[in-house]
Structure formats: C-alpha cells, structure tokens
Amino acid sequence: MSDASVTAALHSTAPLVVIEAPAGCGKTHQGAAYARDMAQGTRERLLIITHTHAACGVFADRTTGLGRHVEIRTIDSLIAQIGGAYHAGLGLPSDIAAWTRRTKHGHKILAARVAQLVARYPIVAAALATRYPTIVCDEHQDSSADQHAIVMALLRQGARVRIFGDPMQHIYEDDAAQGVSPPCDWAVLVGQANAFADLDTPHRWSDGCHALGQWTLSARATLKAGGKIDLTRDLPASVSVAFAENIARNAQGYQLNDAKSVYAAEKKSDSLLILARHNHVVRACRGMFGRRLPMWEGHTRKALEILVDAVRDANGAPVIIAAAVVAFVGATGKGFSPSAFGNQFEQEARELCAKARRGKPATIQELAKHIVDLPDHRGVAAMLRHLAELKGSDSGFSDVAFDHHSEYWDAVRLGNFDDPEAGLAEITNRRTYSRPSPPAKAISTIHKAKGLECRGVILLAGDVKSFPEKPDARCLLYVALSRAKDRLHIVASRTTPSPLFIV
Predict the structure, then answer these.
(1) Which residues, in sequence order, are bridge partners of residue 456?
(2) Over the Cα atoms of the chain, what is R_g?
(3) If pLDDT is split at 50, 70 and 90, which confidence band does 176 have?
C-alpha cells in the first residue's frame, strides 16, 4: 500500500485506524507527521504512547517545536499517572513509582487495576479522552492485554485512536496470570478497525543498501508464513553467512571455534550492533573483543533496583549490605566473584573489620570498612568508587571489569542523595529525558536493540538454542535481521542449526 494511502487513512474521520508497520517502513515518520499535522491544524493536545523511552526520544526529535500540543510518554507512565490520581480507590500508596518497583510484577498488577477502574467507571476514561482527543499508539503489538484494554476504553469514550504495530515484532510475553483483560489478537484488532492500511516501502534502506531492505521484507514474509530463511542461495551481497560452533564447556558460556569472520565483519563497519538473544552470549561476546566494545544497557537498571531494595531491607546490617554489593558487582561486571573477593569481603563486614590484615586481605578490608562505617547507600557508593579506583591502581584488582558501566556508576551517584529511593527516581528521570543512544559500536541483546538501527549488524548464535521453532523466536529473528541498513553478517551453526534457517 502506498505511503499516501496510509496518510489518508490516518487523516480520515475513522475513530480507530490500524496500521501494520514492518520495521524500517516509515512508521515513526508517518506517526510523527500525523501528530504534527493534527497539533498544528486543530491545536488540540495529542498523546503519543510508546513502549520504550528510546521510542519517546525518537518521537520527541520528530515533533520538535509543538510544545504542549503533543505529549509523548510510555504506556507504563500513563498508567502510573492514572494510578497515582486514583491510588486511594485502587488501594495503593500515593508513591506509585516506588510501589510498582518494589512489588513483583508491579507494572502488570497496576495495569490490571487501572484497566478495571476505567471499565467500571467510564467517567475516568471520558476525562482522559477529553484531555487527549487524539491518541497515537506506537508498537502496539507489545501491549499487554490490560494496556490494550485501557486504550480501547479511551476509544469508546470518543478519542480518535491511531494504532501502529507489527505482529512480527511481538517479542515480549504477556503474563495473563497477572491481568484481568482478554489478550489483544492482532487479527481481531484489524477486523475491529474502521480503517486499515499497511506500510510496505523499506525507507530504512533508502540511504543504505536497497537490496538488503528488499531481502529483509522477504525474510519477514517467510517467517510470518511459517517458512525457513534460505541461507544457501539468493542472498544479496550485503548479507554474509559464516558457520561456527559454540565450543564453550560451560552451559552459560559462548566461545566460537572459528571467530575470524566475526572479527573481520567488526573491522569493516564504523557503525555496528552485535546482537544475540541471550544475556550470557552478549557478555561472552564482550570478552571476545577484549572488552573494548561496550554493551548497550538500554534504559532499565534492574540490578541497581535490586541493590536499592536490598540496602533498604537490610536495616543497617553490614553483612547483608555486603552480600547485596557482591551480587550487584557480579550482575554488572566480572572479577569481583565470591571466590576471588566476595567471600572475604562479606566476612570482613560480618566481623566489622575488627582483625588486623595485611596485603590483599587488608585492601578488601578497606573496601568493607566503607559499609561498616556507613551501612547504607552512601557507604555502598563509597565502596564502589573505591573499587573502581583499585581497578586502575592495584594489579590485584586488574581482573575486575564493569560490563554495565552506566548502571555501575549510577550506583555510585546514589551516594549524592540523602534518600536512595529519591536518588533512584531522580537518576531514572534524568536518563529518561537525556535519552542516551548506543555508541558507534555496541553489543546488545535483541530485546534491547528493538527500535534501533545501525549500518552493520552481526547476529551471533544462529542456532537452535537461540532460535527454536517457536513464534517468539521467529519474531526475535526478524527483529534482529531488520536492524541492519548496509551489511548483515549471520553466524549460524551446522551441528545444532536453527530450524528457522535452511543451511
């Protein structure tokens, strides 16, 4: 369907318009252009709902100058706003952000309660529809059942809703056990739409490799139809395939028997994403490159949140805080393992650094003393800063490395705040509005790379473990393949091949 047809559908009077939008086919351009036209034409407030902070940043760049007429936020933040306004009726505390973070499945539980609220009290949805008469939903295939139900409640109360989505990019599982609403079925949604259109022009590759764009759309069609991508023939020059096997003895390890093609592909590109499905492959890949390529951490800081909660629950007990610090450093880097440092570090905290030490044990005791003297987030921050200094000055700590560099230093920055919860909220808020982007070359999971694009992409671990014959694996594979604009290098397996490839 032509871009003009999609534009016409968006600008129609239809209450619900659904656009199927494959990766790289102009979804953000169409959504932002529609937002600009509506904001400038009607002067009404328009709401753009996304699922990631990265997407918020992209839409903000594309709608610069519209000011208060366009509001851009994640669906979770919108739900939190509703929950905060009606927290008493929902049986929740006023600090919704802290509650959702501390509560297991907090965001999902909150979405379920808000979905019930807007269903039971239409006046709530009507007030939101009055405030936001036009709503653009980005990447709607990632909506949970309750998130979808909330959007549909606004539609029923008169809001014009424009939905962009791609069922082939549905890579997040919807935990129905936490929800109250029926799941969103894309085919059903399309049937409910007053107008439907699909984008099919590969704009992402207009200034890159056009043949790669056509191949990527063909691969999407193959995966959607349940077929296999043929890696043996009809590949454009921009797609290369190498076969290598994982010979790591550890089940959580990743070591290629022949990595020459990976190193060669990395050298060819000054704009690169190295992608893998699993976290352990990503971390192992960082080691493959001598840790000179950073990991893309995205927006979330799960290890930091766990650390803050553990320090709060420790109630000033140094040994509990020490154990939380060891777990945090292990989650964000390597080298500060229990056997190398952690056990001794925790012992010092347990004994309150009472015994005289010499050599390396004395240095570990110095680290633990920060927590013994100040058993809270400030002591943790001082210890982590000291550890970073030791890495650069003491050969005994040379094996310590920080993979999640930003998350590690966010923990250090917490020491600048009197309250760790307030500090975490402020640091998160700064990251939200600064909207960091990946460096020129980075290693990432496929999940965190969703929404990004790069000149070159290397896809690692193209085997059955990463891409079995499952619907979510088909979507993950397509998301990975569609990040590349110029060059795509696939590392596949002959001994344990993915059933999604013909090798």
Answers:
(1) 272, 487
(2) 25
(3) low
Q: Which two tokens stand for residue 338?
A: 């229990």
| Residue 102 structure tokens | 């501390």
**CA 288 to each of CA 186, 241, 256, 479: distance values in angstroms, whole numbers, following the listed order:** 40, 19, 9, 24
Q: What is the rounded distance in angstroms from the CA atom of residue 106 to the CA atom of residue 190?
A: 30
Closest CA relative to residue 235, chosen from 261, 209, 260: 209
Pair 369, 349: CB distance under 8 Å: no
Instruction: Return d(Cα 124, Cα 157) in angstroms, integer.
Output: 9
CA gap 162, 140 in Å, rounded: 10
Amino acid at residue number 198: D
For residue 93, give the H/E element and its range: none
Helix (H) or strand (E) segment spanning residue 425: helix 420-434
Q: What is the pLDDT of residues 267-301, one digit of tens each?
A: 999 999 999 999 999 999 998 998 899 999 888 89
**CA dihedral (70, 71, 75, 78) positive or negative:** negative
Helical residues (DSSP H) of 445-495, grouped into ranges? 446-449, 471-481
Q: Bridge partners of 444?
A: 275
Residue 454, phi then psi, degrees to nearest 5: -155, 155
Q: Per the structure block, which two tokens stand in for 22? A: 């494959």
The residue behind tokens 């000033």 is: 316
Inter-CA distances, 301 with 305, 339, 447, Å? 6, 26, 15
β-sheet with 239-243: strand ranges across: 239-243, 484-492, 454-462, 272-276, 441-445
Give residue 485's identity as a one-letter amino acid code.
K
Query: Does an H or E element contain 162, and which?
Result: strand 160-165
Q: What is the mean pLDDT of residues 172-195?
A: 82
* pLDDT, tens only, 62-97: 888 877 889 999 999 999 999 999 999 999 999 898
In three-state secondary structure terms, 107 is helix
Burial class of residue 170 in the structure, from the number of CB atoms within 10 Å of its CB (0-12 exposed, 13-18 middle, 19+ buried): buried
Single pTM value for the model? 0.87
Under the banding of pLDDT at 50, 70 and 90, the label for residue 346 is very high
CA–CA dist 380, 377 (Å, integer): 5
Question: What average pLDDT does range 368-388 have in this prediction?
Answer: 97
* Helix-strand-coil split of the chain, %, nearest 5: 55, 15, 30
Nearest to 47 by CA among 83, 65, 74, 22: 74
- Rounded to 5 degrees, φ, ψ at 65 are 100, -5
H/E stretch holding 109 reads: helix 106-120
Give the lowest-confidence range in 7-11, 55-59, 200-204. Answer: 55-59
User: How confident is the model at residue 402, as a pLDDT?
Assistant: 92
497 DSSP β-pair partners: 463
